[in-house]
Amino acid sequence: MVLGMKLAFLTIALTCVSMSVAASSDNAVSEACISGKSDDRVHLAADSRIAICSEWMKEDQSARSVALLYRAELYAEQQQWDDAFQDYSEMLQLDADNPSVWYNRGALRARHFGQVEEAIMDFDEAVALTHDRPRARYFLHRAAAYGRLIEEESERTDEQDLEALHNMQSDLETFMVLTADKPWEEKKRAAAKDALTYVAARLKALGEA
Questions:
Q1: CA 173 – CA 77 distance, rounded (Å)
Q2: Which has more pLDDT, 60 or 137?
Q3: Distance between CA 101 and CA 153 in Å, rounded?
Q4: pLDDT confidence of 128, banded at 50, 70, 90?
Q5: How many angstroms separate the CA atoms of 82 and 76, rounded?
Q6: How many Å apart are CA 46 and CA 147, to the nearest integer?
Q7: Whole-model pTM?
Q8: 19 C-beta neighbours (distance < 10 Å), count
Q9: Are 88 and 108 spatial neighbours (Cβ–Cβ below 8 Å)?
Q10: CA 195 to chain centre
Q11: CA dihedral 172, 125, 81, 52 (to 10 degrees)
């Protein structure tokens, strides 16, 4: 059976996650960028917020990483993938210890740029930075990226596929453990179970028990 048809979890959107960064109540510019509200409490459109975030960066260099984060999310909301990618990359130059930004950039690479191997490296960074507080979605989406490697890369050896399958299996199993007491994740858990069944069958076909 075709991998893409069997692994339903590959259809799960690799969406960007938001970080909670409180806006200063005495800074109207930061509040407009982060919360989308103007001084008169009117909700601003995404393109207006992008412009405000850009202006905030010019006015306050110390807040650049926060403004970059929110502008990147707004770009992603507007499907301006290149701009979002650029902002996430610049933010990582300012704060390489931020796992959510590694994850978000990896998601963009996997979903919109076809950079699957690079996405896995970004997910690796996110996982490593959260080793003491693992986040289930990082493992699920890295597993999906390994699945795409196997599905889409035609010039792969059995040894490479075996390594990817083992990594994929490990990530799926970790996801199952981390979501064991989270009923709201049942749909993703069901998809992950299907993926694990496929991985086991594929490993068997490649000569592993």
A1: 31
A2: 137
A3: 26
A4: very high
A5: 9
A6: 34
A7: 0.84
A8: 14
A9: yes
A10: 19
A11: 130
